[in-house]
Structures are given as C-alpha cells and as structure tokens.
Amino acid sequence: MEKLILGQTGLEVSRSGFGALPIQRVSMDAAIILLRKAYENGINFFDTARAYSDSEEKIGNALYSVRKEIVIATKTHAKDARTFWDHLETSLNNLKTDYIDIYQFHNPDNLPVKGDELYEAMLEAKRKGYIRHIGITSHSLKFAREAVQSGLYETIQYPFNHLSSNVEINLVLLCKDKNIGFIAMKALSGGLVANAEIAFSFIRNYPNVVPIWGIQLETELNQFIDLEKNPTPMDEEMKSLIEKDKKELSGNFCRGCGYCLPCPADIPIPMATRMKFLLKRAPYKSYLTDEWKEKMARIENCIECGHCSDNCPYHLNTPALLREMLQEYRAFLIDHRI
Ligand code: SF4
Ligand code: SF4
Description:
The protein is α/β, with parallel strands linked by helices. It has helices at residues 28-40, 55-63, 81-94, 117-127, 141-150, 166-177, 196-204, 218-229, 236-249, 269-272, 275-281, 290-297, 307-311, 318-335, and strands at residues 3-5, 12-14, 17-19, 45-47, 71-76, 100-106, 131-137, 155-159, 181-185, 209-214.
C-alpha cells in the first residue's frame, strides 16, 4: 500500500488509515479478524481513543505481535493532569504496548499550551518515552487553526472530506506549509456519504492528508483495500456528484459525531438527526422497522434540556432538527404506506 510521511513526526503511514471507533460495535473476535486483515493488506496506521470503550483493547489483542510494524494514535479527553496519567496508563495496558506513537488531546474545550498542567503532562510523557508525538483533534476550524499556529502540535486531526469548503482546504494547505501531519476524520462525513470511491479520490488529491476510514464491516474494509490497489482519479462525473452532494448536505446537517450524547430521553440523536438523508441515501428498509419507529417516537419525549445543542461542535439546534426529522420520517412512512 502507498505510504506518506505524516509531517514532522516523520512517521511513515499507509495512505489509508483505520479509524477504530466503529469496532466498538462488533465482538472481540470479529474486531480481531478485521484488524488483522487490515494489517495484512498494508494498513499500518490505527487511530483510536480512550473514549471508544474497548476499541484500544481490540487493537492491542489483534496487533500486539506486530507492534513495531504499526503506528498507533490514541487520544485522551482528560481535563486535568491526574486523569491524563490514568488515561495514558490504561491506554498503554489496553494496547499492550510501552509507547504510543501519537497521543492526542481529544477535542478539548481550550487549547492546551506550555505551562498548562495538561500540556506539561504531555511533554513529560514524551520525555519519559511513553509517547512519541503530540497531536490534537478538533471539530472547530478556529481552534484547529490556533493549534496549528501555536507550533505545539505535530499532528492535527480534523474533519475533512469532499464536502469541505475552501477554508478547510486552506487548513490542509497551512498544515502542509508548516509540515504538520493532517489526519482526516469524518472522511465519509459521518456515514452520510455512501460513495466511498468519491471520498477516496477526493482525499487522494492531498498527499499530506491521511484519512482514518471508520471501519466496522469486512465489506467496508475490502472497499478501501480495493481502492488502494486501484486508486481511481477524480473525473468529471465525480466532480458533478460532489457538487450535488454539497448542495444537498450543506449547512445544517449532523455529522454523526455523537458529542451530544447521552440524551436523557434516550433519543439516538446521531442517527435520528440524519434520518431524512439516511432514508434517501442509504438502503432505507432497515429504518422502517418497529424498533426504529419506537426510537424515532422518543423525539416526542425531548425535555429540551439543551445538553445536545450545548455540546454540538457544529452549533446545531439539535432539538429543532430532531422535530423536523420526525416529521419527515412520518411523512416517509405514509408515502410508503407503512
Ligand atoms: S434537548 Fe432533548 S434531544 Fe437534546 S439531549 Fe435534551 S432531551 Fe435529548
Ligand atoms: S447533533 Fe451535533 S453533536 Fe450530535 S451527532 Fe450531530 S453533529 Fe455531532
């Protein structure tokens, strides 16, 4: 598999990385098979997080025997130094390793800088050899720019895909200028982009960007392995499909990141807020079951606590969006006589 150098880290990573958030949803055995297959087919970059329940453990179990051949990035959402050290110790144990290649602050509220207890803890972990490089993840453009300009981070992880605007492309170019590794999350726009070929071809135009494809199923993995073997260059048809996607999904749409959870009314927000698009763009029958009807009906139980909108990095008015989606969903059921 083709590789790229991840900015000033000097790490050589496969041009397709493995985003290990979705493997939380599969069994340990299924995850091990998937991760081994990814490795055997040339993927050497695995991104996970302390916050992704047993994802780190699954990577540790699947890949400890090839530790030296792979690059592991994980994240801490610690807000103080004590929790930072707890997270680091747990991650090292789970991953069955004595070092982490890239340790990232996971979407922090404020930028950790020199002198802060969190950044100083990061530096100490690096001095002691527990981590090799310091990274940060964010969903906010302003924040990501500040992180790049600070000179304190070797990698930035930020949402980037073919729906991204010129200002986001400029962030990628800025990282290239400053030799900062750019790790693209949400490369399939949180599951809304069904056409992996377009997403793949778009990112391929940026040789300093490594996407971490969120992979849960073997079919998804196979798709990226095949695309890596035969990368399709961007053509006119793809360009016009991108424009169509941009029109349909621009602005007020949920990226499925899940930062709004938990919801006290138990509404499956990241899916429910995207229901209109899921019905239109994905095989829709699985969303018409009694189980999904009940889940969507929970929207009526929203108590307007504000937790979701307060925590949405895209500043969405989530309760309003949910109500709109419930209306659309019920209209869809009527249209399809269900
Ligand atoms: S405002 Fe409604 S949807 Fe949002 S977290 Fe609270 S109960 Fe859930
Ligand atoms: S509503 Fe916001 S926080 Fe929740 S999943 Fe969507 S984009 Fe993420």
